[in-house]
Each structure stands twice: as structure tokens, then as C-alpha cells.
Amino acid sequence: MKYEVTIGIPVYRSVNYIADTMESALNQTFASIEFLIVDDGSVDGSMDVVERLTRESNRYQDIRILHHKINQGVGVTRNHILDEAKGRYLYFLDSDDLLEPDAIQLLVNKMHEHHTEIVYGSLDRIDKVGHTATKSFLLPNSCLLSENEMALYTFKNYRTFQISVCNCLMDMNFIRGQHLRFLDTVFWEDLAFTYEMVTKVSRAVLVSDVTYHYLCRPGSLSHYQDREQLEKSEIQKNVQTIDYLKA
To answer: Are 59 and 35 in contact (CB under 8 A)?
Structure first.
């Protein structure tokens, strides 16, 4: 079965959040969506929640669940989604974040209207660590439709441009044609992927509407550096990522 969009959700240690995340995905107003969920060796009950919601959903036929026997990390998991996605377009959703109900419809409309390779939405950042006020990161409504505009915009606005691969709709023919992949690391894999991708994009659209709610929570990969204990192997992989970005 072919879909217009695949929403790819890597799942690991998100038992307290995955229900809201899944519901925000399943409640999308857009019809033609494949929900591709990859269990990255989660043992905290997250997948019990996913399987219950799958059974209860009227979109259960559109939900596909893949499993890793052991935790392999978000980079490997996202590559698995790149390999398996059946949609014409791909949208990554982290397992503790939320979508606006019309997020996919809005981004697909822009993709069709401008025949682009990528559409970025704006987002809210909800801080559950420092408990600061929710902050909005609003993009300008812009069409970047010539060869170098996306790369130039990112370079000029690198301090404020959100480098997460969540909250952007990507054309899978473009992603696969450019052989774009994630590094096998647990931190900054978004940065490496994004900054390689924007150098290859020739048509992009930025949207000022908030379509994504990004949750900063204790223990998430977003706060990897705040953990009290780190495996040396993790640090070594992240040094490799830094070296890759310098190259």
C-alpha cells in the first residue's frame, strides 16, 4: 500500500509520553498517512502503550511496528525508518513530542503548491527541565526556490534555525536520491544530517505556523550532556560526529 506521508516515530524509554504523542499523530486531519513505529529495544512499557493504542485506533491498518532486539540508538533507528518508509514524503516525530492536528495537511499543501523537496514548520519548545516559559521558534513565511537559497538561509541564521529533523516534511525521492543517512551516534545526529541536507536542497519552503510542540524533559537525548554517567563509547561516537562536522 502506498501512502502520501510516512510519520516515522523512534520509540525508546518514553512510557510516560508516548500515548499523547501517538494520539497527536493518529488525530491528524490528513488521511493518507503510514504510521511507522520503530521500537529501539525499549523495555519500560512504551511498546505496551503503542500496541494498546494500535488495537484501539480506527487507523490501525495504517500502523506498522518494527522492533530492534537491543537498543541501537536514534541514528540507526532513523536510518531504519528511511529504509522502510512507504510514503512519498517523510516526517519524523519524536516519541515525547506533539503535533498540531492539521500539521501534516498544512505541510503537504505547501509541498504540493511549490513542488519543493522540503517544508519546515515552526515549533514551540516546552521546558520540563528548567521549567522556563514555553518559547516559540517562528520561521518567516518564505519560499527558497533557487539552488543556493536554503543553504544560504541556514548559514546566515544558524544561531536560530532549528536543526532537528522533526517538524519538516521531506520528499523521499530527494532523500534517497541524495543518499542521505544519519550517523550512528546518540547526540548531534540531527545536526550532521541537517547541515548535509541543506547543502543539497534546491527548493524549500518555511512556514510560520506552529505545527510541532517539542518537549525538553529529564533523561531525553536532548539533555544527553546533563546525564551524571556516560559510557565512554558514547563519548567516542560523539567525538566522531564533531570530526565529521569539521570535515
So the answer is: yes
Q: Where are the alpha helices (DSSP H) in 27-102?
A: 46-56, 74-84
pLDDT digits (tens, 9 = 90+) for 158-178: 878 877 899 999 999 999 999
CB 119 within 8 A of CB 107: yes
Q: Tens of pLDDT along 59-73? A: 999 999 999 999 999
Exposed / middle / buried, residue 192 (Cβ in 10 Å: 0-12, 13-18, 19+): buried
List the one residue out of 144, 164, 32, 34 whose CA is nearest residue 96: 164
Q: Which of 71, 24, 14, 81 is nearest to 47 (CA)?
A: 14
CB 76 within 8 A of CB 184: yes
Asked whether 117 and 179 are in contact (CB, 8 A), the reply is no
d(CA 90, CA 241): 24
Helix axes 18-26, 46-56, angle to 10 degrees: 30
**Average pLDDT for the chain:** 88
Whether 166 contacts 194, CB under 8 Å: no
Q: Which ranges constitute the DSSP H helices of the chain?
A: 18-26, 46-56, 74-84, 103-114, 149-156, 172-177, 189-197, 232-246
With H, G, I as helix, E, B as strand and everything else as coil, classify residue 208. Answer: strand
- Check whether 98 has a pLDDT greater than 70: yes
SS3 229: coil
Strand partners, 171: 89
